[in-house]
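--- STAGE predict ---
source: upstream dedup step, 1 unique chain passed
mode: sequence only
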Amino acid sequence: MRPLSIVAVGVLMVVMSSGHVVAQVGKSLGVVDANTVAEKDLLSMPGMTPAIVAGLIEKRPFASITDLHAYLLSQKLTPEQAMAFYGKAFVHIDLNTATPDEILLVPGAGKRMVHEFEEYRPWKTYAQFAKEIGKYVGADQAAKLAQYTFIPVRLNTASDEDILSIPNAGPRMVREFKEYRPWKTKAQFMKEIGKYVGAKETERLWRYVTID
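--- STAGE serialize ---
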């Protein structure tokens, strides 16, 4: 394993030493959410054409990265071209439930990370992720892998920062998520949040949360 940079070591130590890591969606290092990124940005990404982008937007939100992958392959992109696109845009995978097929679509993951992601479940914080995955690939690569993932946000206890880590959640969702506490069911979530953003967007947001 290559030596860690001084900056990477410092980041890892801060993350590991803190008692609370607020973000429950991995911090982006340049990769955006394929379900919310703007059309003009999609058009500049590898393998994209106006027709592919139009179809992608029409089908959003994708419930999983494997669904997006199936769409891209149906548009005659090769697996290599699809992976190049994932270096720019992705549908986050749930660290606690992602299948091997989903993990293997994370750029730089490979079969080793299928094993490691599964071994340390349940994941609770990104401090845990930085510590455990950093053992194998170093802090820089662990941070790159984290940006493709999320740990479900707890609807009834999440901080503002936790909620804001969800792509396109924004201050409005912070207010609404907190207003309807305690949350008890998905049906309740779909009803109440659906008043503000519609069924498709509510379903997209639901992917990132959990009621416990």
